[in-house]
């Protein structure tokens, strides 16, 4: 049995939880358990100051999205960045999603900045082939304005698409990050867009909602890839 630690970096408001059928960690449990692997999960409420004190508590880690800024000055974010540096230095297997993707870049001396416009709703992502999974082009739901603009030293771009200049990256063979949300279904994304309509702007919100009606997403494909990465299940020899 493999134990995955979910580093929870935000909480849904009640109306979004209702649309999602649970909280943010529940989305990750469903995404990763959908692969059929024997996984258990442990949550750490990083947004409220809870971080693992012992890296042996879990076999791999996934950092969730958040409304917070990875380049901001919230004390809990500073603590999270320090934990990320420690975990990566000891070669923990880590996946970062959206804010998690940005926080890992920020922690390792990359650069995260605010883009000119929001990206919401389905966006195209082509993940490069790796030793864990084949190349794949998928649609994933986006919900971000901050983006990675400079990779950390030693990191490599791991994909391309319409959501950001760096939509995915990896560090060595134990850190993988993706900007978009494989865990977000259409109902969850719709509820978030509706709740942020004023912040997003009418044109952006309307465009995202329209594309949700016409563009199916393939989060399950990326969920499978993330599990293969966390379990270090290699499909080919080291390169």
The CATH superfamily is identified as Class I glutamine amidotransferase (GATase) domain
Query: Which CATH first-tier class would you pick?
Result: Alpha Beta
Share of helical residues: 25-40%
Major sheet: arrangement of strands:
2-1-3-4-10-9-7
Percentage of residues in strands: 25-35%
How many distinct folded domains?
Answer: 1
- How many separate helices? 8
- In total, how many beta strands? 10
Gyration radius, rounded: 16 Å
CATH architecture: 3-Layer(aba) Sandwich
Topology of this structure?
Blueprint: E1 2-8, H1 14-20, H2 24-33, E2 39-45, E3 60-63, H3 75-89, E4 94-97, H4 99-107, E5 111-127, E6 136-150, E7 155-157, E8 159-161, E9 168-171, E10 175-178, H5 186-195, H6 197-200, H7 202-214, H8 219-230
Helix pairs in contact: 1-5, 3-4, 5-7
Task: Give the gist of this structure.
With about 240 residues, this protein is an alpha/beta fold. About 35% of the residues lie in helices and about 30% in strands. The protein has helices spanning about 15-20, 25-35, 75-90, 100-105, 185-195, 195-200, 200-215, 220-230, and strands at about 1-10, 40-45, 60-65, 95, 110-125, 135-150, 155, 160, 170, 175-180.
């Amino acid at each position: 049995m493999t134990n995955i630690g979910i580093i929870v970096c935000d909480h849904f408001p009640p109306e979004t939880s209702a649309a999602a059928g649970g909280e943010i960690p529940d989305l990750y449990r469903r995404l990763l358990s959908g692969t059929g692997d024997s996984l258990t999960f442990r949550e750490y409420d990083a947004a409220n100051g809870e971080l693992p004190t012992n890296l042996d508590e879990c076999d791999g880690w996934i950092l969730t999205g958040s409304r917070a800024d990875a380049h901001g000055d919230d004390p809990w974010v500073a603590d999270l960045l320090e934990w990320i540096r420690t975990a990566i230095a000891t070669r923990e297997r880590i996946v970062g999603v959206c804010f998690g993707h940005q926080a890992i870049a920020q922690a390792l001396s990359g650069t995260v900045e605010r883009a000119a416009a929001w990206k919401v709703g389905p966006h195209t992502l082509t993940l490069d082939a790796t030793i864990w999974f084949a190349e794949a082009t998928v649609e994933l739901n986006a919900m971000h304005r901050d983006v990675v603009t400079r990779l950390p030293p030693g990191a490599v771009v791991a994909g391309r698409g319409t959501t950001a200049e760096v939509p995915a990256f990896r560090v060595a063979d134990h850190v993988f990050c993706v900007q978009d949300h494989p865990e977000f279904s259409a109902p969850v994304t719709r509820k978030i867009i509706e709740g942020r309509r004023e912040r997003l702007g009418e044109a952006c919100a309307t465009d995202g909602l329209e594309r949700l009606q016409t563009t199916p997403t393939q989060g399950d494909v990326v969920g499978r890839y993330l599990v293969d990465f966390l379990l270090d299940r290699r499909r080919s020899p080291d390169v």
